[in-house]
Amino acid sequence: MTMKLVYLVLDGVADRLSDTSTSLSMAKKPYLDLLARAGACGAVYTVGKGVAPESDAAVMSILGYDPHTSYTGRGPLEAVGAGVSFVEGREVAFRANFATVDPSSKKLVDRRVGRSLSTEEARELAEALDGLKLSTHGGYVKVKATVGHRAVVVIGSDMMPLSDEVDNTDPAYKKVGAISVAEKSFQPYIKKSTPLSPTLSAQVTADLVNEFTLRSIEILDKHPINRAREERGLLKANVILVRDAGSKLPKLTPISKLFNASFGSITEMPVENGIARLLGMRATEMPPPTEDKASDYSIRLSATLKLLKEVDVVYVHLKGPDEPGHDGDLHGKIKSIEDIDKFYVKELIDSIDLREVAILVTADHATPPSIRAHTDDPVPLLLVGGRIKPDEVLRLEEKTCYELGSIGVLSHGWEILPKILDMIRT
């Protein structure tokens, strides 16, 4: 492969296709728009029309793998990304959030502790739960905090194998097969985990999950970290919500073999790092994002340029726009796009030769601030570099890319790389 590729994914950057104004249309992003004018655009439903995917299934899809047939759940991917071991078939791994709950009513105050929980605080809280023994079925728990309010939970049993066919306790997502789908609306109460199959192992697993949920409230509510947070007027991180159960890792063709090209990755979150490692990429995990965006994106750019010397395709996943989208913070989302444009995209353009390195820009899903959740809207697609001919699109925006882009509208994310690699190779 002679032409190299930077595959830039802006997490949740898109809003509703039907919106008159979007975060992308309002953001001042001269360098992303410069790329749009110089390249070919289009749009893609990252998992499929009608599916509002979580990031894990969407990332698997946009990297070339149909999550409906090759996916076994987010929990195992988070575990791999966080360096947590689990025994396939005997233990079940979950993605988890520290959250704030009223201990008596079980009503959720905030599913993410107001995004105010530091990684250091989360690690101390996780240590208080790690190694917990449950009262039935020889149950035990492993807990590891990752970034901010996020964590990995592994539930096991010394007496019998467990099943990943159990529903989430996080009410914002429902489990459909191996994929979790964002609920359009939900009641703000902890969900009781229920078995999704009539097997004894699924019932036992659900029982253990529910006991762990109650024990997490008992232990965390009075923890010194939460007492100190309460004194400072901050929300307590006094429960753990789990979702996306998985008991095995998918067996997939390495991505280098699938596309006859070498791949590297720059990721910020455990799930994307886990996917990259699972697919055999040369994985580079970045330190968590900070308030110093100039420094953050300088570090990510340096890692990108280093990997470009070593591999054919560098997958760069930047979390920025997704969090303010979930928080309903339109101005915060606009600023996150502008920061990426100023501190990463501009410097990337200045550091490469577009005759030798193409740039592909897209998102893993839409996270409109008006919805505060992922939606099934198509996301923009932009390819520039080499012999790619410009089309009529002048700005990187949802509607113009969808309606005017010469790449067209792709029905599934796994169509992206075969099409794009063919375009830059010819």
Q: How is this structure best summarized?
A:
The chain has 426 residues and is of the alpha/beta class.
How is this structure best described in words?
With 426 residues, the chain is α/β, with parallel strands linked by helices. It has two domains: 4-71 and 251-425, Alkaline Phosphatase, subunit A, CATH 3.40.720.10; 76-246, no CATH class. Helices cover 35% and strands 20% of the residues. It has 15 helices and 15 strands. The protein has helices spanning 23-26, 30-38, 55-62, 67-70, 74-82, 119-129, 200-221, 224-231, 255-259, 270-278, 293-308, 322-326, 330-351, 398-404, 416-425, and strands at 4-10, 40-44, 91-101, 108-110, 139-145, 150-157, 173-176, 179-182, 239-246, 263-267, 282-285, 313-318, 357-362, 379-384, 408-410. Strands 11-10-12-1-13-14-2-15 form an eight-stranded mixed sheet, with helices on both faces. Strands 3, 4, 5, 6 and 9 form a five-stranded antiparallel sheet that branches. A two-stranded antiparallel ribbon has the order 7-8. Strand 5 and strand 6 (150-157) form a beta hairpin. Helix 5 crosses helix 10 (270-278) and helix 11 (293-308) packs parallel to helix 13 (330-351). The longest helix has 22 residues, at 200-221. The radius of gyration is 21 Å and the shape is globular. The relative contact order is 0.25.
